[in-house]
Each structure stands twice: as C-alpha cells, then as structure tokens.
Amino acid sequence: MDTTMPIKQRGISFGGFLVGAFFLVIIGIFGLKLIPAYMENALIKSVFDEMARAPEFKSATAHDIQVAFGLRTSINNIKAIKPDEIDIANEQGKLVLSASYFVKVPLAGNVSLYLDFNPTSTQ
Fold this sequence. Notes:
The protein is 45% helix and 20% strand.
C-alpha cells in the first residue's frame, strides 16, 4: 500500500483560464478601438511642434499659420480638427499652437467613449 502523500497541484483551472482570457480579449478589443484616436493626437502634437520650431512661422500671420496647418493636415490625413480651431499665441517671442477637441469612440452597441485632447506645441 502506498502511504506517500499526493502532490498538491498548482495553477489555474480551465474555467479560470476562460474567464481570464475573456477579460483579456475585451480589454484588447477596447484598446484597439482607442489606439487611432491617440495616434491622431500624437500626430497633431508633432505638427504643432514642427510648426512652432520653424523659423518662417515666427513672424507669420494667423491666417498663414492656419493655411500651412491645413496643408499639413491634408498630407497627414488629420480629420479631428480644422485649421480655424487652432489657438495661436505668441508667448515671450515664441509661437505656441494649441487646440482642444474631443473624439467619440463607439465601443459596443450604444456605449461610446468620449476622449478629450488638448495638444499644444512645447518649446
């Protein structure tokens, strides 16, 4: 007769694995829906930074800056903001571009997520 103690098994059960996999898939799907909005925000911020550093825009008028931003948005396929929605300021001799906008991301059915973005050029 075998009198040794059985080794206690460790790990998760199949049911626990399914529950964990379900939550990971849901989080992944929502994450994939949010990535394009964050990528577009990063693109807008990089355009703002590039334009604020460019010497030809230091003395440009607001209209010239908006036209140049409009051209860059058409090249980069930016649809979140329009050129007339840009806030243009000149702080201590430095050009500062900023905007404030929101993006509605549909998640599932009638559930949506509103994301507020405030990109600005940094010096």
